[in-house]
Amino acid sequence: MRRSHGFTLLEVLIAISITALIGLGAWQLLNTAIRTYELGQESLESLSQLQRAQLLIARDFQQVVPRAIRDEYGDYSAALLSGDEFDVVELTRVGWRNPIQEERSDTQRVAYSIDDGDLIRRYWKVLDRAQDSEAISRRLLSDVESFSVRYLNDSDAWVDEWPPQEFEVDDSVLDNMRRFVVLPKAVEINLSHPRYGNISRLFQLPNYLENTLIDSQRGNGGQGENSDDQNAGGDQGNSDGTGSSNNGAGEQNSSPDNGITGGNL
């Protein structure tokens, strides 16, 4: 009778060892591929987050307008306001898209702040806020080490506060309001991130040139109106002595009103 031949214990152990080695190598390859994919997705998401944050920041600062607001307490707040204990910067911008045609303005009030390493963008649905007005917050970027803003003034010097404290005003209502709507020449954004290092963005504000032209035109127009008023007052004084003082006073009172109406209030 022929005896059947099987595997010996040594052969079985060798086969098991070879199978285990092949399985371990396959698992390592699969684990490496999965880990590489996860790291790639994490880097891609972080880069996309940074790009979205920079896009929103660029849109906000490139569309700044000299429109002051009233805060929750009824006090005036500048169109571009440097940081306080809560926000790094607060500004008024245009270009707020309205795809569903809501009954609201296309001008938006925006603020940026840092909260536990997160860059937060807040905006309000109204410009002049009431006490119950609530801001809508959105996290733009995580793991932010620092976020700062500085401003280029008329003397081509960089300052950390805006509007400048040394802004010269007189007793007229127009000049007292002008400090709330004055804009710098440029704004520099500095952001520090552990993955991407230090990032700086420089934005030239287009409304600075526009305001400069408006101020110069307003100044020329004001001089012309004053000279016309003086000539008119002198002619009427020669023709009618009793009516010259009343007419001259009336024209002099109307000149500041015209100047205020033409300003950026």
Descriptive report:
By secondary structure, this protein is an alpha+beta fold. The protein has a domain at 58-212: Pili subunits. The chain has four helices and eleven strands; from the N terminus they run αβββββββββαββαα. The chain has a five-stranded antiparallel sheet, covered by helices on one side. Strand 1 and strand 2 (76-77) form a beta hairpin. The longest helix is centred in the N-terminal third of the chain and has 54 residues, at 9-62. It is elongated and about 115 Å long. The model is unreliable at 221-265 (pLDDT under 50).
Approximate shape:
elongated
Helix fraction, binned, reads 40-55%
Query: Can you tell me the CATH topology of one domain?
Result: Pili subunits
What is the number of strand segments? Answer: 11
Low-confidence stretches: 221-265
Query: How do the strands of the widest beta sheet line up side by side?
Result: 3-4-5-6-7
Task: Output the number of helix runs.
Answer: 4
Largest sheet: 5 strands, antiparallel
Which CATH architecture of one domain is right? Roll
Return the CATH class of one domain. Alpha Beta
Mean pLDDT: 78
Q: What's the end-to-end separation, in Å? A: 115 Å
- Please name the fourth-level CATH homologous superfamily of one domain: GSPII I/J protein-like
Q: Pairing-aware structural class of the strands and helices?
A: alpha+beta
Please provide the ordered H/E string of secondary-structure elements.
HEEEEEEEEEHEEHH
Radius of gyration: 33 Å
Into which percentage range does the β-strand content fall? Answer: 15-25%
